[in-house]
Specification:
The chain has about 750 residues and is α+β, with helices and mostly antiparallel strands. It has 29 helices and 22 strands.
Length: about 750
Amino acid sequence: MSAEATDPGNPEAAGRKRGRPRLELRGLRRIGRAALLGPAARDGLPDALEHVAKVHRGHHPDADLDILSKAYLLAESSHRGQMRKSGEPYITHPLAVTLILAELGAETTTLTASLLHDTVEDTEVTLDQVRAEFGAEVCYLVDGVTKLEKVDYGAAAEPETFRKMLVATGNDVRVMSIKLADRLHNMRTLGVMRPEKQARIAKVTRDVLIPLAERLGVQALKSELEDLVFAILHPEEYATTRRLVRERTDLCRQQPDPLAVIADRVRATLDEAGIGAEVRVVPRHLVSVHRVLLGRGEVTGADLGRLLVLVAEDADCYAVLGELHTCFTPVISEFKDFIASPKFNLYQSLHTAVTGEAGGIAETLIRTHQMHRVAEAGVIALGNPYAPCTGASGADAPEGERADPTRPGWLSRLLEWQRTTPDPDTFWTSLRDDLAQDREITVFCADGLSDGPDGRSADVPGGPSGATGGVIGLPAGASCVDAAYARHGEAAHCCIGARVNGRLATLATVLHDGDSLHLLMAPESATGPSPEWLDHARTPAARLAISRRLSEPLEAGGPSAGPGEAPAGPPAAVTAHEPREVTPASVLAMADLPGAAVRLAGCCTPVPPDSVTGFAVRGGTVTVHRALCPVVARMAATGRQPVGVRWRGAGRTGHGCRVTLLAEAFSRPHLLADLTEAIAAQGAAVVSAAVEPPHEQRVRHTYTLQLPNADGLPSLMRAMRQVPGVFDVLRAGRPRPAAAVRP
């Protein structure tokens, strides 16, 4: 059950003064009186439901109120005798939640479920009864917001409840709409709780519910929740900001309000241009004012609100923008076009800022009336997104597909990784981390498929559903590692690099909005991810997949493999049949293990006639390392037993091979071009290249090269050393000299 009382600092009153969309006190009192008097009906509608019905009819004139009346009667009778901690009948809570949703334009099914949202949790009503009386759709919504019992789940009840709610939201976003409205009313009435409980609820609201409201585009709920959390968790800053707003507001009453003056000029300008538009001054909520104060150190009268220009058509938005930038001095750095490129939460608007005659800067939002409804109510403004829809031609959506504009990439990613996170604590931590990412980018796979290391498209099985498209949605700051796991799931373990906007890049490369990405996939995934990938992974899906792979025990129960090396399988699992030649390495090397495939290690890229050793990994494959490779020492230290390997033909070198070289040089212009030219002159092909940032006038280039045969390796290294500025060329995996070369 929820408690009700006036919250700290009375932000409700402050919100009404600032024009926030709130449940009116008159409406609350009417609901309370009606609840005390019982479900007496007038014209077939209970008195307590009158205000909700009036607001609902304002958005949906043809709405059928009979089902709302039926739901109210069931909720009122089942909650009868239950009281909130404030002393009011409990039915006032579901009524208030329903009114919040009605004010945002929710359709009838959502309001029906909101009236019943606590019945299964707190009364004797069952889900079967709800399904029988109101249908499967309402039953699903009620079940989605019903909490799990602490007696069954203990300390895991809260995270598991949110997991259940998120899974339900994945099938119907209206579940989360009801939860957000429920939490808003509870936050408004939290004052009767103990301070420590207020803080706990406020922190969960800040970490989970507010980010979810942002992602679903429900700005009206998000803004008010932010203010209520601000009042509880930061009471001193809240009081200071509120006092500052009151002082600036009083000052604007004594002298012309700069925003009102600019708004009048904007109206006159648009009227003269013949553009029909509604111009409003929209107050900022307290948290927004506080952010301005932190960023600028002071707040002016123009910072207390924004100009909102509402027009009829999309084209009118750009016409308004042209007039404003012609007749006012624009602040170009403030311009953003979220109409051409909508935000991931459905938000569309033009953002700009113009300067008034007195020097005040007015942030201005330009949007259509429909865009404004979506900006305020997000997915709630879409009505029932799961109703049968038809296109312009009247044809239904293809069978098996559902037109669902409310299932953005962030929700799909969240649902994907939560399925593989059984531990409640890990889920709870990962959920908060995921929701902390407050911006999303779009990355394009130009051909819709990832590329293999040879530049040809590679079909990588085992990726998550939906990985065949050409667009990947990622949080801002995500790297190629995150993109690989978002696209291919567990199969991303075999990713070895990427091309970003046509250029070779490391997996640590941070991606930006609009980047074109080609993932380079190895022909096998036996190497597994490197532990360093965790440093570059930003999404929980990538971190969890990498951690699971790195923590997998050996199939034989032995110690874990060293970094960059997959665990070994038991020798007994290898059958004694003809050796499997799965890579070109088997042309060069062979192992003393019947039936084993052979793979050259990517960490040291051995070539004949290097001294080599091998280690068994998953699937009976033997990885061949140079004897001097650091990984060999780590393997031995963990007790891994080496497998004897040797070059075929007593070490013959007349076969193509791949090698990784490190070129140490003094930083200078055209060094990369000169080194590439020297490599090409030796007949070697560059598979990948990376250049580290210069440090103390020195730079390191890393090249993975394909040689026609191993005989040419010494001459290639000599040619690279002869490039001006290069002072050493080393094989990857070779221990570095003790004395560093000084410039």
